[in-house]
DNA sequence: ATCGATAATTTGTTCGAACATCCTTGCGAT
DNA sequence: ATCGCAAGGATGTTCGAACAAATTATCGAT
């Protein structure tokens, strides 16, 4: 059985900055098993350690994560509303599937909403916003893109910093709802990105271009050039989407042909 | 076998549509207590029968709804992700509060997203879409606006038809994600609307104007006049928001039940 | 051998009780 | 009287077992 379950079990407080959608602002020790397992499942879902379509059996999860089924039900219920898992009465939970149409929908809306949020952030952002962008960009650029996909920790680290950078761009947007939606879309897109990263031929040119785009967006945002910033951001998203879609079709084909797991 | 990558993702809005999947006796057995209580709580949350800020104690809910705490936890967990309920570890669940800033945010984004969705629907809608709009409009116009707020059933009926009409306008939009977000915002706005409806001086002129707007939007949409349709829809939303805000301040003042604004 | 029905097993659902934490109350000291 | 602290009650959390539905396996008939 592929070790999709034995992911880092450190009881370290869930640094929920890994996800754009902030989970719990107030950080007390008010943590419960249900909250914890929710964060862990969420991470594993987005990272793709739990495969799309896979059944999430209670006994299995209980053994893998070392928690009872009561906290599990709680966590899975929330993940249903997060659209990360599906539920059918008396038939249990499954990992939400991926689909090309969903990917298209997701990306189109993400581009639109993120650019919208970026515009608002540029209009209202203060010095702290600018500083945070530069800090996040610096941290991102300092993180080498892991050449081995097997290196989960490195991938997680890069994804987290990438997420954080994109979040910093729009953080000054004055609409919590818009931020929430952008976060949800970002999380879901990450699922696709990480599902296909296995075959991502890390073309030097592509990486170079992506880095360039990050820097350009940051600079344009801080220079309050909304037109340029949103244009580059949209271009950046479009580029990512195209790469993901290209690889997605490849992965999808190879999965359909190969043995089912 | 088709892989899990090719299955569609349906962002079903069935739960928030008040009527369709209610407790139908005997036919669909795929329902569980958790699902049922989720729908009921959701309805009561949106209808305002559960007051903003109110603590949701398990014993209390268990007695009131006649279910155990296991299904309750499941339902409440989902409602947390729906933003209708708040949760603090070891301190229980509370009804999500209302606030003026949230109301503003909500409405601004709803207008934007709904108009966006309406544009897409107008561009892609077919005859069935047109027919459904007319049907929903007819049913809405046939429903008298209840003069007594005490008449829950009548209010529910009107709200449901109103919801259905607005949904029918954008249903042909090809973006499940956008529809999902519009639905969430619509549900949350309904919470505000119904919270303040108690003092809504049902001005004849206002009602007349609202009806007019509904009809105009429907006609413009079917005539594929996107500019006019979105303009009227935005105006319609703006009008609702203003009424709600005016009454909200009144209610907020009279209650002065310390809610954070 | 295929089909259909039924038995056996697995899996999801719900409940009740044990446990931990939070909040209130009551007591005593300053 | 106020503050701090401890005891008690209320509430949230988690587990294990009983229950119900669904899936798989088994068997007999055509």
Strand order of the largest sheet of chain A: 1-3-2
Order of helices and strands of chain A: HEHHEEHHHHHH
Largest sheet, strands/sense/barrel of chain A: 3 strands, antiparallel
> What is the mean pLDDT of chain A?
86
- Tell me which protein chains meet in the greatest interface and how many residues each side has: A-B, 54 and 46 residues
Task: Sum this structure up briefly.
Chain A is built from 9 helices and 3 strands. Chain A has 261 residues and is mainly α. In chain A, strands 1-3-2 form a 3-stranded antiparallel β-sheet.
Tell me what you see in this structure.
The structure is a homodimer of 261-residue chains. Chain A has 261 residues and is mainly α. Helices cover 64% and strands 4% of the residues of chain A. Chain A has nine helices and three strands; from the N terminus they run αβααββαααααα. A three-stranded antiparallel beta sheet of chain A has the order 1-3-2. In chain A, helix 1 (33-47) packs across helix 3 and helix 4 (100-124) packs across helix 7. The longest helix of chain A has 32 residues, at 226-257. The radius of gyration of chain A is 19 Å and the shape is globular. Chains A and B meet through helix 3, helix 4, helix 7 and helix 9 of A and helix 3, helix 4 and helix 7 of B. The structure holds a DNA duplex (30 and 30 nucleotides).
């Amino acid at each position: 059985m592929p070790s999709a379950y034995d992911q880092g079990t450190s009881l370290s407080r869930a640094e929920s900055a890994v996800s754009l959608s902030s989970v719990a602002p107030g950080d007390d020790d008010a943590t419960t098993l249900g909250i914890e397992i929710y964060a862990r499942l969420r991470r594993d879902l987005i990272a793709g350690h739990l495969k799309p379509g896979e059944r999430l059996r209670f006994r299995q999860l209980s053994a893998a994560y070392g928690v009872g089924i009561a906290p599990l039900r709680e966590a899975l219920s929330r993940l249903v509303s997060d659209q990360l898992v599906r539920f059918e009465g008396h038939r249990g939970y499954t990992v939400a599937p991926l689909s090309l149409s969903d990917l298209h929908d997701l990306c189109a809306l993400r581009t639109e909403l993120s650019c919208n949020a970026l515009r608002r952030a540029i209009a209202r952002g203060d010095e702290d916003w600018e500083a945070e962008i530069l800090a996040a960009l610096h941290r991102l650029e300092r993180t080498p893109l892991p050449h081995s996909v097997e290196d989960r920790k490195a991938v997680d680290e890069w994804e987290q910093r990438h997420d954080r950078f994109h979040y910093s761009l729009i953080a000054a947007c004055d609409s919590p709802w818009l931020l929430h939606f952008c976060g949800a879309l970002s999380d879901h897109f990450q699922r696709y990105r990480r599902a296909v990263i296995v075959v991502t031929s890390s073309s030097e040119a592509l990486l170079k271009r992506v880095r360039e785009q990050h820097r350009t967006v940051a600079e344009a945002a801080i220079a309050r050039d909304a037109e340029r910033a949103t244009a580059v951001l949209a271009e950046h998203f479009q580029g990512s989407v195209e790469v993901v879609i290209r690889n997605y079709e490849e992965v999808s084909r190879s999965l359909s042909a190969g043995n089912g797991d």
